[in-house]
Amino acid sequence: MKNITIIMTAYNRKKLFEETVCSLHSANASFRLVVIENYSTDGTIELAREMRDKGIITDLLQPEKKLPMLYQTQLIGIDYVLRDSKPDILLLTADDFAFKPEWFNTLISWYSEAPPNVAFCSLYKEPDWWWNAIYSTLKSDGYKAFVRRTVPGANWAMRLEDWKFIEPKFREWVHDGQLDVNMCEWVYKNNKICCALDLAEHIGKFDSLYGNISYQPKPEGK
Asked: Which residues pair with 9 in a beta bridge?
């Protein structure tokens, strides 16, 4: 299991986008990087075209029109990739994560022995919040993942067969900003789990394009 395709969404965060792409390549590994650029006005699209021309990005797409939801742009990328390829692992990521140099080898190794009940695994271990309790830990090929109530949809890795499992619900909820939370709940109801590896830092948590304020303190009474 060595074939990874990355589907990255990008919009109006040029500096973070560049940092994310560079951090992915810090692994010095071979992967396909597909970027879905959502009509930025800050120079992101021009930078993405330059990266594509240099071979840093493999494919560069734009939707027919600007889309309001992260998951809609992710789905465009997934459909595009699966029309002509069957990667072992799909990695969905937003344009605001700094990946550790060991991300590629660790992800490959971890999935080589991961149990089939893992529906998806984030490479970002969120801080502990009231909605993402850690249930347990899971070791695979010596690497530890945290089994959590929820993991953020801005950063999910999954095997191709896992995508086929969640695909109907992903399409059903693609217009819902709470898709990731809903999906995690649905996964557990269907005897699967979701995990988080500690392989990336969320460098854009204070610059959310979708109003995410999860970094703020827990509301009183929660």
From this structure: 36
Cα 104 to Cα 7, 19, 137: the distances in Å are 14, 17, 20
Instruction: Give CA angle at 165 (66, 25), nearest 5°.
Output: 55
Angle in degrees, CA 75, 79, 85, rounded to 5: 135
Question: In this predicted model, what pLDDT tens digit does every residue of 193-205 receive, in sequence order?
Answer: 999 999 999 999 7
At 130 the pLDDT is 86
Give yes or no for a contact between 25 and 89, defined as CB atoms under 8 angstroms apart.
Answer: no
Exposed / middle / buried, residue 122 (Cβ in 10 Å: 0-12, 13-18, 19+): buried
CB 48 within 8 A of CB 17: yes
pTM (2 d.p.): 0.92
| Residue type present at position 103 | W
CATH class of 4-202: alpha beta
Rounded Cα gap, residues 5 and 79, in angstroms: 12
Instruction: Please spell the DSSP secondary structure of 22-78, one letter per residue.
Output: HHHHTT----EEEEEE---SSSHHHHHHHHHHTTSSSEEE--SS--S-HHHHHHHHH
